[in-house]
Amino acid sequence: MRLHRLLRLGLPVLGLGLMTGLVFGWPWSRDMVEQPAVRPFEVWMPLPPEGTVPQATAWRPGPTAITPEAVEAGRQLFRTYCVVCHGPMAKGTGPVAKKLKSRPYDITGPFVAQKKDTSLYETLRGGGVVMPPYREALSPTETWAVLSYVRSLQRKGPPP
Ligand code: HEC
User: Fold this and answer.
1) How far is 101 from 111, CA to CA, in rounded Å?
2) Alpha carbon of 20 to ligand 1 centroid (Å)
3) pTM of the prediction?
4) Which of 71, 79, 86, 108 for a ligand 1 pocket mutation test, highest count of atoms within 8 Å of Cβ?
5) According to a count of CB atoms within 10 Å of the terminal CB, is the N or C end of the chain lower?
6) Nearest-CA residue for atom 21 of ligand 1
7) For the chain, what percent of residues have pLDDT higher than 90?
């Protein structure tokens, strides 16, 4: 009777121990670790091909050379896409502006004027907090045209 109870308790414990040993103690438990593979920091990252530039700067020179054609194209795009929020004078007084939780910036003002071209480009492509993204609506060239217009406003004050 005692032996019987001992076996009933002991056998499952022994079985469990054996199984654990098989799973964790056997050589195959490390097969996934010890395989031919490149481990982190074992080799250097391949360098980019000669002449490659990061994407953010790849568009340079942007609207640095502001041509009258780009400004005119930008003005029309601004009237189409931006005026609803930013208003005809780009001061942030468009009809939709009142409905927004945070007001569109006065993009003729010094805060936006001191921003880098690439920074504004990224905002236009990817959107701001409230401002929608325009990477679908505007091509890169059109985006630079709009920025040329924005820059021309900042230089001359009221739009032409
Ligand atoms: C739905 C309203 C809305 C529309 C449409 C809109 N904007 Fe904006 N814009 C905003 C708001 C709001 C901000 C302030 C930042 C934020 O909260 O996203 C802003 C900020 C900006 C800034 C400042 C970005 C910065 O980094 O400080 C620029 C430049 C700008 N808009 C240009 C444009 C241009 C160009 C268009 C058209 C292609 C446009 N916006 C369309 C609402 C709008």
Assistant:
1) 20
2) 62
3) 0.68
4) 86
5) N
6) 105
7) 31
